[in-house]
Amino acid sequence: MAAHVTAALVVAHVNGKVQHLYHGDVVPAGIDKGSLANLVNLGFVSTDDEVAGESDVERPAEAGPGSAKEKWLAYAAAKGVEVDAEASKEDIVAAVTTAGH
User: What is the per-residue pLDDT across 51-66, written as a single tens digit (0 to 9) for each?
Assistant: First the structure.
């Protein structure tokens, strides 16, 4: 189930690490389920029932503003591309591109 951040900023545990997610970000698949449930209950995150579908997720910039690793992790998750949270941004971009997104 895809989820999107509706608050300005949330801090979540993703794959055992603390990650900052910003308004509009897709919540990564590796988020701790307890963190996700708490964020949904607080109204900081919406499920895919309440937001646009995967096809509406825009590819982040590869350099400059909007090109942060976190944006690429969220984009990969939205497109169903499995990547390691420890991977470099370049490796994440390559995985997403190889997957055809």
Answer: 444 456 788 999 888 8
Amino acid identity, position 82: E
DSSP secondary structure letters along 7-63 = SSEEEEEETTEEEEEETTPBPPTTB-HHHHHHHHHHTSEEETTSS--GGGPPPPPSS
Give residue 80's identity as a one-letter amino acid code: G
Q: Burial level of 1, CB count in 10 A (0-12/13-18/19+)?
A: exposed
Task: Answer yes or no: are the C-beta atoms of 50 and 41 closer than 8 Å.
Answer: no
Number of domains, the chain: 1
Q: Tell me the pLDDT tens digit for each residue of 22-54.
A: 998 999 988 888 888 888 888 899 876 544 444
| 3-state secondary structure (DSSP) of residue 5 | strand
Answer whether 0.70 is exceeded by the pTM: no
Task: Supply the range of the domain harboring residue 9.
Answer: 3-98
